[in-house]
């Protein structure tokens, strides 16, 4: 099962969540060497079905995985910041620059320790796409015909979204029908990827933020 939704098809961003999303942008952009393009808007892009880890692909030989998630949490909302990519002679297309996954309520996230991210990785050959998923899905698994088919379908959906001028252009692919496992594919333009965690004193990760950026 696949889907590609405009922002009007999803529940709106609440004021508390909206403030949290922009705080992540400001937090990340304190670093002059790893600044994300400032989004023009945020959209809820659905929910990510959680497993033992959440992984952000679109970088080096492997994705960056995050564990120590709050126990008992089966799904988490996903919010993406988009901007219009404008190229001469072409209609503008929406591109993602930041993806935020709250794993607790905004007040709990705000009270946590927001780290300064991990070092960027050279992007993997996903041809301009970054992928947020939970294990065991791996969109780059060599020889995996299912993963290759998912990537082709995601590209098809996003290219169609470009043609329609979708503001929240991404693709959701159901990768594990038995448990509802899914992966979210985002079109990106930057040279590198990075990610951040909000962590409580006991090590529990209460929020994840992922970026696509050009190194300075």
Explain what you see:
- The protein is globular.
- It has a 6-stranded antiparallel sheet, covered by helices on one side. It has a 6-stranded antiparallel sheet with strand order 2-5-6-12-11-7, with helices on both faces.
- Helices cover 19% and strands 36% of the residues.
- By secondary structure, it is of the alpha+beta class.
Oligomer: single chain
Supply the helix-strand structural class. Answer: alpha+beta
- Topology as a string of helices (H) and strands (E): EHEEEEEHEEHEEEE
Strand content: 35-45%
Q: Percent range for helical residues?
A: 10-25%
Overall strand count: 12
> What's the average pLDDT?
84
Rounded radius of gyration (Å): 16 Å
Globular, elongated, flat, extended or rod-shaped: what is the shape?
Answer: globular
Q: Biggest sheet, strands in spatial order?
A: 1-9-10-8-3-4
* Unreliable spans: 1-11
